[in-house]
Specification:
The protein is mainly α. It is built from eight helices and six strands. The chain is 51% helix and 7% strand.
Length: 203
């Protein structure tokens, strides 16, 4: 089943966290991987180029052979999640998490030309016809940007879906990755719970 890569699926705030969130309900028995079908990697990259225009400078993302790239894509994604999820939860990073991420980023940047070349030549710069950016290289730069900006204190774990997101609110008090989706779902759950409690008391 193909994924509808809606704006909600890009609630992470930056490309690196968006990719970490392609595992749904991480750590839950009901969880699943949206990249189980390698074809979704290319579809995610295409949607990311639309939803992360500013971060990518308006340039498209090149994936090349998604099936061949899947192992490296997943390793990069999991190294991002392992490091930043620990930091968001206020825990020490797992042993080797930083070197693992740096190795995955180095591998992604090393193969940058291969992915971009797969789409053919295009002019540099942003906008229509701009030269593509290798997908894994763009994700790696996004992850390294989080490290260089020391964004750890602003990375949160959504209280509803367990996704990672960058809290850019003025007072740093965001709880949900997407108020319109996760925030409303939690409000509905609390409302239902209060109603059930009242019915039980008066039943």
């Amino acid at each position: 089943m193909t994924v509808d890569w809606t704006p909600h699926r890009f609630s992470g705030g930056v490309l690196a966290l968006d990719m970490a969130n392609t595992v749904v309900l991480r750590g839950d028995p009901r969880g699943f991987d949206r990249f189980a079908d390698a074809a979704e990697i290319g579809r995610f990259a295409e949607a990311a180029a639309r939803h992360r225009v500013e971060e990518l400078g308006g340039r498209p993302l090149a994936v090349g052979d998604a099936a061949a790239a899947k192992e490296n894509v997943v390793e990069l994604r999991e190294s991002i999640d392992a490091l930043f999820r620990a930091r968001a939860g206020g825990h020490r990073s797992p042993p080797g998490a930083l070197p693992r991420l740096l190795r995955a980023c180095a591998a992604a940047l090393d193969g940058e030309g291969e992915e971009a070349d797969a789409t053919g030549g295009a002019p540099e710069g942003g906008g229509p016809g701009a030269a593509p950016v290798a997908f894994t290289a763009a994700v790696a730069r996004s992850a390294l940007g989080l490290l260089c900006d020391d964004a750890g204190p602003r990375i949160r774990i959504c209280a509803n879906c367990n996704w990672l997101f960058l809290d850019r609110s003025r007072n740093g008090s965001r709880v949900w990755c997407d108020m319109a989706v996760c925030g409303n779902r939690q409000k509905a759950k609390r409302h239902y719970g209060r109603r059930r409690t009242k019915e039980t008391k008066h039943g």
